[in-house]
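# step 3/5: fold
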Amino acid sequence: MSPKLPINNAQTITDFLNLHKSEISEETSDESYRFAFDDEAFLARRETIGIRFELELLKPEILLKEHGIEHTITVFGSTRFVSREHALELEKNAKTPEELSTAHKALLHSAYYESARDFGAIVAHYNATQDNKSNKLHICTGGGPGIMEAANRGAFEAGDQTIGFNISLPREQHPNSYISQGLSFRFHYFALRKMHFMLRARAIVAYPGGFGSFDELFEVLTLMQTHKVLPIPVILVGAGYWREMINFKRMVEFGVIDEADMQTIHFVETAPEAWKIIKDWYQLG
């Protein structure tokens, strides 16, 4: 049997844009004569992946600087949580036992949505007391629904700037409506998106979530463990969830991490507790 190793195991930009091979072949003079920077077909080739990496790094970096944003608090968490208002509506409209069960779960999880919303508002109220832009901390999320929407919403409703780093997905995820104008970004590459999560982050606040939240959380912890970034507070909201999902204590006992690796991790239950850790860490007024 011949080995069936894939030539490429990633979704390329040509796959994502559904470009046929003939659309990037550039066989006519009209096509080949275009400026390279104005030629979408050329920029979508596999060989230009490095250029696309650079562009995804540069665009948000330049625009965030133009908006005077130097410091962020990055908030992670499940896309599946909804507001209490939405959960109550689901409960009211439930017609089957399955729908009622789903509504009850949504109502339980809505406490995290409302907490993230409160946290966004707390940060925004702090920013309102600061005249110097370099002292402000802005809410930054993945730009989608759930906890991301809630944190953006809390800050947005309090009149503050909020940032969303969205990502292209097979089932397209649209930016939530609580991201400030000019601060909603779209990425194709997770690596570049995660880099931007960290470039200005002065704290990480993680609510219960799934694979994506765990991926982002452990990337942050690894960067600090390996001294690629300065230590920042990593705040896990919902201690019961996090301690059940990840037995950090057992990892220390087993010898795969050190007790020192736990010094930046804080378990809290409420938005004010999360803010107090950040406030004390940076001695904010």
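# step 4/5: annotate
The longest strand covers residues 162-167.
# step 5/5: archive (pending)
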